[in-house]
Amino acid sequence: MAGRQLCKIKSRGHVSGVCAGLSEYFGVDVSIIRLIWVLAIFFGVGSPVIIYFIMAIILPEYDPDSVYFEEYVDDDDEYDDRDRY
Questions:
Q1: Where along the chain do its domains lie?
Q2: Where is the Phage shock protein PspC N-terminal domain (predicted)?
């Protein structure tokens, strides 16, 4: 997966976009990432708040020209170019 980069996406984030960036990078729903983060805070797994703020400072912001995210392409298209000829 060349060109894939972990970054924060402020336009989709509530605080700084770290969870939104993680969800795009790992290909899961952002709600699942947020739920895991909140559970980690309540159960005291490591230092999630400190890790979050470090990631918010270190991670670059999303730049659509330099970051590659796989997009869903509907191959079941009604119009197929092969049928035209």
A1: 1-64
A2: 5-61
